[in-house]
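Protein modeling request. Please complete all fields; requests missing the sequence field cannot be processed.
Requester role: graduate student
Desired output: 3D structure, token encoding
Chains: 1
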Amino acid sequence: MSIPLQFQELDDLIVKHTAPPVTPILRSKLSTLREQVEAQTNVADELATLKKAHTALQNEHEAFKAAQMVSAPAFKAYLCPHCGQMQAELTGTKTGPTRSDMMLDIQHRYYHCHKCKHEWSEPMK
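Delivered output (125 residues):
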């Protein structure tokens, strides 16, 4: 038997088996209980809805993280001046290629672009 039907049956018993000074008090208390049960039922329904939404968002987040892992390069990407893509990788540092760089010990950073295969160097500042 459902709870609303049990409340109705209890209300009918109160009306049938109690005298007037007690009847309105008991019916008032029963009405308060009925409202509280309905509120709890609404909260339970809302909680179930929120749990479903939370699960859906968790799945969406996991899919997003997986997509990010696939698209992110395995190296720190730099901007290639040749093709303009963030596909260049720092391959190392060493003394520059000119005689003056060697004499002054000017270090250069060497880069390689994975997209266009362009290689270049820049002096370190």
